[in-house]
Design brief:
This protein is α+β, with helices and mostly antiparallel strands. The chain has 3 domains: 2-130, Beta-Lactamase (2-Layer Sandwich), CATH 3.30.450.20; 150-263, PAS domain (Beta-Lactamase); 274-441, Reverse transcriptase/Diguanylate cyclase domain (Alpha-Beta Plaits, 2-Layer Sandwich), CATH 3.30.70. Helix content is 41%, strand content 24%. The protein has 14 helices and 16 strands. The chain has helices at residues 2-24, 43-49, 61-65, 72-78, 127-148, 169-175, 197-210, 259-273, 283-299, 314-321, 323-340, 364-379, 408-424, 435-441; strands spanning 28-33, 38-41, 84-93, 106-113, 118-125, 153-158, 213-220, 226-235, 251-257, 303-311, 346-351, 354-360, 382-385, 388-391, 394-402, 430-432. The chain has a 5-stranded antiparallel beta sheet with strand order 2-1-5-4-3. Strand 1 (28-33) and strand 2 form a beta hairpin. Helix 10 (314-321) packs across helix 11 (323-340) and helix 11 crosses helix 12. It is elongated and about 125 Å long. Bound molecules: guanosine-5'-triphosphate. Residues 277, 310-316, 318, 323, 326-327, 330, 352-353, 423, 427 line the site of guanosine-5'-triphosphate (GTP). Residues 302-435 form the GGDEF domain. GO terms for molecular function: diguanylate cyclase activity. Its EC number is 2.7.7.65.
């Protein structure tokens, strides 16, 4: 008797545990007769099915789902075996007026035949899952379209030091580079000398601080040709997952070939930013470039050099050979400047016979060497005008900001003071600014307005 009592007790306990499981299970469970009459339903199923029930009560599984899945009853009746899976993960799309949360709701239904008289339904709301899947598929399709179809976009990832991490067809299509560029700094897409290693890192820091960094300009193809390009760098959202690994993807780089669009606007930009006589950058372009460099230097301290060149005794050249001949000399000086300085430097005509060269990340020795190279070069040049060969010389004043306070006005003032000294000491020479020039020599100011 005791043994029989024990086994009844244990059966009861098992039954209770099972009921508890049914109630707490994280999916909807419904046990019903073969005709759909509900025997047991857990709270999740009730919550999912109740809004579908036409009369607001849940007595029959098939009737509850009739409006959205009318053949369930038939499918179940026609299932040939005594037990088994009638269907698995059937997606039931609820009608718009059945939407519970204002977005199309999708239920997943699995129906098991337990024996000739009973079925068990497992129901879950897969709306969020399906939406995520759809979004993933859509993102995948977009990415795929960009990578394989859209011919003017190139996508790449770069590591935290700006080295290309991967290569794909879009890069080949837009730039012509093959996978040998993996591991190179992304400046491989920039024409020679147009980007210093500091500029390269500046863009990454800017992307870190602002969420993205964009620039526009001429970029390089593998065959050496150039194209107008808009380049966007953005930090990858999940890059923390790679920890401190230096060779993990950290940013995405999107290059877009905008040659067609830029061809038209570039003419207008050229007109606004270049000097009409020499085609060098004009004052406006010079001051814009200077502000940008000073802004960069404020974030990441580095030296910035300015050389101001001035043709010597230029009034005399005009007086002797005429104004048009003087213009030819100015154009010759512009050519010499263009040939001497790097693409990353800004060479501008500041006005009259004065030219300014802004040299990012350049210290005093390097600036003096470049300025003197130009000076010496010019001294050997002869400008042929109407059968006459005109010789001329230039003087230069140099100032460098080494992370010390001061804007472009300070830099120009110092370079001007040094230039004044070069003129005073005999011309055809290069002089660097020192604090002594201002405090002891105290030269009069040459007039020049900033901007
Ligand atoms: N041909 C020509 N001359 C210009 C132009 N702009 C300014 N000038 C002339 O450049 C001359 C500058 O003369 P100054 O400022 O006296 O200087 P300088 O004769 O070069 O003497 P130093 O600078 O002291 O060596 C003036 O005669 C201006 O008319 C220009 O676009 N074309």
């Amino acid at each position: 008797m005791i043994a029989a009592d024990d086994s009844v007790e244990s059966l009861r306990a098992e039954h209770e545990a099972l009921m508890q499981f049914l109630y707490l299970a994280p999916v909807g469970l419904v046990q019903a007769g073969i005709d759909g009459e509900i025997v047991m339903i857990n709270p999740i199923s009730a919550q999912l099915l109740l809004p579908l029930s036409p009369d607001g009560c849940l007595t029959n599984l098939f009737s509850a789902l009739e409006s959205v899945a009318p053949d369930l009853r038939l499918q179940c009746a026609q299932y040939p075996r005594d037990n088994g899976m009638v269907f698995e993960g059937l997606h039931i799309h609820l009608r718009a007026d059945d939407q519970v949360r204002g977005t199309p709701q999708i239920l997943s239904l699995t129906l098991l035949k337990l024996d000739h008289a009973r079925v068990m339904a497992v129901i879950s709301d897969v709306t969020a899952e399906m939406r995520r899947e759809r979004q993933l598929r859509q993102s995948d399709a977009w990415l795929n379209a960009i990578l394989t179809r859209i011919s003017d976009y190139a996508l790449a990832t770069i590591d935290k030091d700006g080295r290309l991490f991967d290569w794909n067809d879009s890069i080949a299509r837009v730039t012509g580079f093959d996978d040998h560029i993996v591991g190179s700094p992304y400046s491989v897409f920039y024409p020679k000398d147009t980007m210093t290693s500091e500029h390269l890192l500046d863009r990454l820091r800017e992307a870190d601080n602002n969420g993205w960094s964009m620039d526009e300009g001429l970029r390089l193809r593998a065959d050496g040709s150039q194209f107008w390009c808009n380049a966007l760098i953005a930090p990858l959202p999940d890059r923390e997952a790679f920890g401190d690994d230096a060779h993990a993807p950290a940013y995405c780089l999107i290059l877009r070939d905008i040659s067609d669009k830029r061809a038209a606007t570039e003419k207008r930009r050229q007109a606004a930013f270049s000097d009409h006589l020499t085609s060098l950058a004009n004052r406006r372009a010079f001051f814009e470039a200077a502000e940008l460099e000073l802004e960069r230097a404020a974030h990441t301290p580095r030296s910035l050099a300015l050389i101001v060149f001035d043709a010597d005794h230029f009034k005399g050249i005009n007086d002797r050979y005429g104004h048009p001949a003087g213009d030819r000399v100015l154009c010759d000086l512009a050519d010499a400047l263009r040939d001497t300085f790097r693409a990353v430097d800004t060479v501008a005509r500041l006005g009259g016979e004065e030219f300014g060269v802004l040299l990012p990340s350049t210290g005093i020795e390097q600036a003096v060497a470049s300025a003197d190279r130009l000076r010496a070069q010019v001294a050997t040049r002869l400008v042929a005008v109407d059968g006459v060969e005109i010789a001329y010389t230039v003087s230069a004043g140099i100032a460098v900001l080494n992370g010390d306070a001061g804007g472009i006005d300070v830099l120009i003032k110092r370079a001007d003071e040094a230039l004044y000294l070069a003129k005073a000491q005999g011309r055809n020479r290069v002089t660097s600014w020192t604090p002594k020039i201002t405090t002891h020599e105290n030269p009069p100011q040459r007039s020049r307005n900033a901007g």
